[in-house]
Amino acid sequence: MTFPATASVLRYSAFASRPGGGNPAGVVLDASPLDEQQMLAVAAEVGYSETVFVTSRDEQRRRFTLRYFSPLAEVAFCGHATVAASVALAERIGPGDLVYDTLAGEIRVETVADGPGLVRATLTSVPTRSRPAQAAEVDAALSALRWGKADLDPALPAHVAFGGNEHLVLAAATRARLADLDYDFEALTAVMKIHGWTTVHLVWRESDGRFHARDPFPVGGVIEDPATGAAAAAFGGYLRTLGLVAAADTIAIRQGEDMGRPSDLIIEVDSHDPRVRVTGHAVPIPG
């Protein structure tokens, strides 16, 4: 397939301040000539967990339409690709506020210069929600993960949380359990497709203000995400639903460490607001 010249793909690593960390994302800043099949083909060729496509743009109003594709399918929202696109745009039109129309709803992002050659982006999610996972959902996921119920932290119950997409949240009892991830790819894919989960958000609580996370993403054709902004937003809603945040709390999430791609996500959760703010840097990946 031949793609229009405007389909040139930029590559950024999100939620890191150096290319060797974070989650790589493809960014196409002018995707208006592309149809869905072409965007999917571009994403498959890039091979990252997501590539984001700017399908319409109004630079004067700083408003854009974004679509997100994994190598296998379109997804409604992707946090790390949104951060990557925001930094790419800020580098070209200047830092400031951005507004995105996505399949998940309107997403607002603040971008600021944060030192020489570095831009920080903060996205505000759509309203989050979280519900207790059903026993059958948990059992099926644990079987595919090759985990047992004793591997879970009873103080952090399993939930299905939403922050633009739905994610199953499972809390590991120990850091060692989180580090030892060897799941059945096909089995977990099947479970996630049945329930409509975008990732399984595996977490371990180091302290009240710091968590470690891993996100299997087999439904996107990717074993694991090094940083997952949408899941971080959903996790903020999970903590809010459980009453584990105060009027306004800031939580640090460390992800990708066990993959050799350390990523840092900061979430701001308000007990009175269902929206969650997710902050991180993004940097170009040298070609």
From TrEMBL:
Keyword Isomerase: yes
Keyword check for Chloroplast: no
Catalytic site positions: 50
GO molecular function, one term: isomerase activity
Gene Ontology CC: cytoplasm
Entries under InterPro entries matching the protein: Phenazine_PhzF-like
Keywords linked to the UniProt accession: Isomerase
Domain of life: Bacteria
Entries under Pfam families matching the protein: PhzC-PhzF
PANTHER family found in the cross-reference section: BIOSYNTHESIS PROTEIN, PUTATIVE-RELATED, PHENAZINE BIOSYNTHESIS PROTEIN
Cited NCBIfam families: PhzF_family (TIGR00654)
UniProt family annotation: Belongs to the PhzF family.
Name recorded for this polypeptide: PhzF family phenazine biosynthesis protein
Organism, scientific name: Streptomyces marianii
